[in-house]
What does this fold into?
Amino acid sequence: MDWFFLIVAGLCEVAGVAAISNFNTKKSVMNLLYMVAGFALSFFLLSMAMKTISMGTAYAVWTGIGTVGSALIGILFLGESAGWKRLLFIAMIISATIGLKFIPY
It folds into this structure.
């Protein structure tokens, strides 16, 4: 269950980052609330996951999900570059994040 919490925490971080982008484009109370809610839920779920997953592994996976998710949102919805080098390094982050699941902690 802790790995589920960690994955959802990473997705909430992505939602918070996307809300920052929306807030910068259109300043509204709703965009601000989405941002705060995304990060608050993300931190709460991260702390739940860290009850059994080591801090280093949990934080690396959490930031990896946030980094990849934010980059993919930028590529898919914001017109950011999807060059092969960028995609290669995103794939490397995904590989390293998955690899952390298989090492003892």
In short: The two ends are 16 Å apart (CA to CA).
